């Protein structure tokens, strides 16, 4: 009799053990899988059960907020500024999110460990859980100015501006744009259908061109080449004479590197500042070859290229390209060939020069506060890299001021303000008109803003309008004025 009872008891214990193992597997190991499963309707409704925090700019302008809804959903997300801030706020869809909505999700929905105490108090008092508010570093006037000026060009493009002394991003505009409200509804069929439509558009409105894509920077990169040249020998300055043939013969090839439009650059030898003012190709191609790939690549790395970066959205990697022959180095040194840069990286180069050679880490989140307005986290500016010496920065600053005052960037001039800048026209491989670029900072001796402007295929006209000076520089001027005139 004892034998059957023992066997039954062992069997019961075994089944109980298996049951406990199964429960633990379900709750601990597979919990995430079931929670994220699209068929989990409870998770679907839970996304809209909490009042997400607001996203604001300058502490005042509301970019995203939750409003009470009727029916099965307690709250719905709305975006009062919609297309103007779409690439910053991102969207909050039934199953995903983007940009700030994604990177700050745990703060916005109240699930962050930093909000644990507040959740406990809410539970005790019976108050509903509310997410934290995220305030961005964006200057609303600069953002609107950048958006309007770029839109007026009728082209795709990007504008990003930052405070060179802190790294705070003051404006970030990418066109074309989209309405995040269309992707933040509760009707999955409509939301996913609209997302697919936007994703398939040739103009790629979902793309934040400031950080998601790299481009050849054209002649704006000559500032980097000049930096490497000056850093290589501290005795060099703006008046150092450099070779400037009409066509630079490239080694091991029958091809030559001409100046823009095949023009001559002075009399064959010019000062460094003259070469930058007129944006001559041949002297900078020659400088690049003399310095070599390693020194050029090292200088670019010092400005932050090739290093992981998030603002908090991740940023595409800028690069000088793979090591090739000297002819490739010459072409890369004028911003062509294999050089690929994000507009944000070009703005960081301008900002580093403006800030006496120190590049500050760019950031978008200024402050995070709880539902009652108490600060949970505040931005703490930090150095990203020491790119160049303060002496080199001063020399470059003066030369860039001369580019605006006497060279190709005269349309960026602001009365009563010394503006430093560099134009660029970048050839593309797809047969489209060149991209128009401009990098700048102002006031030159006490910079409040540094920026980069890219107009895709924007150099489509003849003469001066064909360069970054004609297309991109006027956009930069408007954005700088929006910051300086406050």
Q: Summary?
A:
The chain is an alpha+beta fold and 486 residues long. It has helices at 2-29, 31-36, 41-46, 86-89, 99-103, 105-108, 116-125, 140-153, 188-200, 222-232, 272-277, 281-291, 293-302, 326-332, 343-354, 390-406, 468-471, 473-484, and strands at residues 55-57, 61-68, 75-78, 133-136, 157-162, 169-175, 241-243, 247-249, 256-258, 269-271, 358-360, 365-369, 375-378, 383-386, 420-426, 435-442, 449-455.
Can you offer a commentary on this structure?
By secondary structure, the chain is α+β, with helices and mostly antiparallel strands. The chain has a domain at 218-365 and 380-484: 3-Layer(aba) Sandwich (Beta-lactamase). Residues 461-466 have low confidence and may be disordered. The strands form five sheets. Strands 3-2-1-4-12-13 form a six-stranded mixed sheet, with no helix packed on it. Strands 6-5-17-16-15 form a five-stranded antiparallel sheet, with helices on both faces. Helix 8 (140-153) packs antiparallel against helix 18 (473-484). 37% of the residues lie in helices and 17% in strands. The protein has helices spanning 2-29, 31-36, 41-46, 86-89, 99-103, 105-108, 116-125, 140-153, 188-200, 222-232, 272-277, 281-291, 293-302, 326-332, 343-354, 390-406, 468-471, 473-484; strands at residues 55-57, 61-68, 75-78, 133-136, 157-162, 169-175, 241-243, 247-249, 256-258, 269-271, 358-360, 365-369, 375-378, 383-386, 420-426, 435-442, 449-455. The relative contact order is 0.12. One of its GO terms (molecular function) is peptidoglycan L,D-transpeptidase activity. This is Penicillin-binding protein A. It comes from Nonomuraea glycinis. InterPro entries: Beta-lactam/transpept (IPR050515), Beta-lactam/transpept-like (IPR012338), PBPA_dimer (IPR054120), PCN-bd_Tpept (IPR001460). Keywords: Signal.
């Amino acid at each position: 009799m004892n034998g059957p009872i023992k066997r039954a008891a062992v069997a019961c214990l075994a089944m109980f053990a298996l049951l406990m193992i199964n429960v633990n597997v379900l709750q601990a190991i597979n919990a995430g899988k079931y929670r994220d499963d699209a068929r989990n309707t409870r998770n679907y409704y839970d996304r809209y059960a909490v009042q997400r925090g607001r996203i604001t700019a300058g502490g005042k302008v509301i970019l995203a907020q939750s409003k009470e809804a009727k029916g099965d959903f307690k709250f719905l997300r709305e975006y009062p500024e919609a297309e103007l801030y779409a690439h910053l706020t991102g969207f909050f869809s039934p199953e995903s999110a983007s940009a700030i909505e994604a990177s700050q999700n745990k703060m916005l929905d109240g699930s962050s460990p930093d909000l644990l105490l507040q959740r406990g108090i809410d539970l005790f008092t019976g108050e509903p859980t509310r997410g934290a508010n995220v305030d961005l570093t964006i200057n609303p006037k600069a953002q609107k100015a950048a958006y309007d000026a770029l839109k007026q060009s009728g082209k795709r493009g990007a504008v990003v501006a930052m405070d060179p002394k802190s790294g705070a991003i003051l404006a970030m505009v990418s066109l074309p744009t989209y309405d995040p409200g269309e992707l933040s509804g509760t009707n999955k069929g409509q939301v996913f259908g609209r997302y697919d439509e936007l994703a398939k558009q040739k103009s790629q409105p979902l793309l934040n061109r400031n950080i998601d894509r790299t481009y050849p920077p054209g002649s704006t990169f000559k500032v980097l080449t000049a930096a490497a040249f000056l850093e290589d020998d501290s005795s060099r300055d703006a008046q150092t004479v450099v070779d400037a043939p009409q066509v630079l013969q490239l080694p091991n090839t029958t091809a030559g590197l001409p100046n823009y439009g095949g023009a001559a650059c002075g009399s064959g030898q010019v000062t460094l500042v003259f070469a930058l003012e007129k944006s001559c190709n041949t002297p900078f191609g020659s400088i690049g070859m003399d310095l070599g790939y390693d020194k050029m690549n090292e200088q670019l790395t010092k400005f932050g290229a090739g290093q992981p970066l998030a603002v908090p959205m991740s940023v595409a990697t800028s690069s000088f390209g793979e090591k090739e022959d000297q002819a490739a180095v010459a072409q890369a040194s004028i911003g062509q060939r294999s050089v690929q840069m994000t507009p944000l990286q070009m703005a960081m180069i301008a900002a580093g020069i403006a800030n006496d050679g120190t590049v500050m880490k760019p950031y978008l989140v200024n402050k995070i506060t709880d539902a009652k307005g108490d600060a949970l986290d505040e931005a703490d500016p930090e150095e990203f890299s020491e790119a160049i010496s303060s002496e080199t920065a001063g020399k470059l600053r003066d030369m860039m001021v001369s580019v605006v005052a006497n060279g190709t960037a005269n349309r960026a001039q602001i009365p009563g303000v010394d503006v430093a800048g560099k134009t660029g026209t970048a050839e593309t491989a797809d047969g489209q008109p060149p991209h128009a670029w401009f990098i700048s900072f102002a006031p030159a001796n006490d910079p409040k803003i540094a920026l980069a402007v890219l107009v895709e295929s924007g150099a489509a006209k003849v003469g001066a309008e064909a360069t970054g000076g004609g297309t991109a520089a006027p956009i930069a001027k408007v954005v700088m004025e929006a910051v300086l005139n406050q």
